[in-house]
Amino acid sequence: MLTLLVFCLTSVNLAAAVFYSKDEAMKLAFGDDASVEMQSLFPTPEEVAQIEQLAKVKLESNLFSFYVGKKQDAVIGYAAIESHTVRTKPETLLVVLTPDGKLRNVYTLAFHEPPEYQPPERWMALLANHSIEELSLNKDIQGVAGATLSTRAAINSARKVLAIYQVLIQNKPH
Known about the structure:
Distance between the termini: 60 Å
Strand order of the largest sheet: 1-6-5-4-3-2
Signal peptide: 1-17
Number of domains: 1
Number of helices: 5
Shape: globular
Domain FMN-binding: 77-165
Oligomer: single chain
Strand content: 25-35%
Organism: Methylomonas denitrificans
Radius of gyration: 17 Å
Protein name: FMN-binding protein
Mean pLDDT: 82
Keywords: Electron transport, Flavoprotein, FMN, Phosphoprotein, Signal, Transport
């Protein structure tokens, strides 16, 4: 019985996977030769309400960190690292936007749920080039059998980052 308990506890940790460090994530988002600046964003209550309405997601925090990738002082894109609980364990995603705020990529940085619950990279690639209005599970983008909560979490993270960009970054001086 004790052996079974030890096996169960250790097998839970074996399922956890960290795919990229923060530095690797920034290179994934912007390339090796980009400079990266972090912006800390603190929305007002009115801006929080706007973000939640656009994203159709409740915000857990009033602090957001956006990373701005630049080459020769020109913005080449934006990125945000989003951590959330999928079912009972955390997932961390990198959401990358183009310089004009369109969704470019969503990458899984870490996934601690069982591997079969993780959406495949080819599904994550389907999110690219969608606007916030086009990101809805089973309407615009099909889910993945066995990974419904993970796919919903990825779409919610992408919608949240797009909404934050629209409310807090777009049309503001950089």
